[in-house]
What we know:
Immunoglobulin-like; 5 helices; 3 domains
Amino acid sequence: MTEAHCSRTRRRLLLGGAVAAGAWAIAPRGALIGLARAQTREHRLIAQPGEAPLLGPSGPKVPIWGYNGRVPGPELRVRQGERLRVTVENRLNEETTVHWHGVRVPNAMDGVPHLTQKPIAPGERFTYEFEAPDAGTYWYHPHQRSYEQVDRGLYGALIVEEPAPIRVDRDVTWILDDWRLTREGRVSETFGNMRDVAHNGRIGNTITINGVFFDEFALHGGERIRLRLINAANARIFGLEFADHQPIIIALDGQPVTPHAPPNGRVVLGPAMRCDLILDAVGRPGHRYVVRDMFYKTMAYELLSFTYSNKPLRAKPPESPIELPRNRLREPDVARAQTHRIHFQGGMIGDLTGATLNGRPLDMRQMMQSGKAWAVNGVVASGHTPEPMLTLTRDRSYVLALHNDTAWHHPMHLHGHSFRVIRRNGRPTPYREWQDTVLLSPDENVEVAFVADNPGDWMFHCHILEHQEGGMMNVIRVT
């Protein structure tokens, strides 16, 4: 990495990123109904080393691991109700898997090593096949040594299209990520170190969108964009503010929500979370508008700029409906639901003095010596196959009362299900949003409700991947 490039990085605090302004034709309303089950979409993914222009077209390419040798991996698109068959070949020098984040797959297709499948050994293949039951924005990534494999670039988008999509001019996916790069322009090898594990995870110094460095995203006045945001970072939480624009949230974690403006004008995405926005291009021709990431007060930076052409597409954006059709998720009976309390503990600046690891009580010093710093209900996870902390009866409704008794944020992800977020700190949520990953602030209480209708052993873990590795994980069994 040149000194000039380092200087530019210091001025901007972080390297930026951007995307190609890709678009897809939107079929007429109703044209896709009845066709979704007619075919199976087949794909091949190869987990292998590659190179990516993380530092921009003028910078050196950075060695990464990627699906088909690139980052992100291919964007997989299917229609709701279609089957997806993906053959994964492992050309890494270590085992891997693929998890289909947010998709309500059968348990055997969930991609958790030793819990739902044998890991894919180097040189071997595994075929995942499942129906895409819910329209929305999802993604795929490994669950084997995910704190390293995801950070090196193994991830991609999975888009499940509605039978009758809303009308927009462009449907655009941004996969947000950060990278910890050395001055030599290589991915830092400091994976899973205890400072990251016990604090807020592996925060990087280089930001990309769709694996590339670029400063601008072109807009034409009067156009309407569906912007699908995916946070693929190990630990960074994004808090995006769109200068002089008013994006409208229409889906969270793939599931439709009542269209609304983001609270305080900021779109907040914890690791693994997704958000679909309607972005109307209301800027002035020839002008530039900055998108900033403002989540961390001491690390604010410019992500990119919207740059407007001198020739608008139309006088103003269309006024067509933007509310998405709801997916067929079973409504939990909260009044009759059984409640389970789940307590998240540990980390630096926390009150945890000790917990149980592999059946042995350890104090915090012993936990740290074992590479662990976090506990769920007093138990520290080691590997992917602990004894389930809960056994739920299939088709019954449950409430999980989550308490973050730590000084750090935690995006908690439940495999195999979506849940309604019904209360925060005792107050009903205004939209009762369906999610599969809920972000808990320090000392926050959140209640989520769902029907346990997908049988199997399912991971429930923090998606700050260093926290998961450090013990904040357990299993929920549905029988």
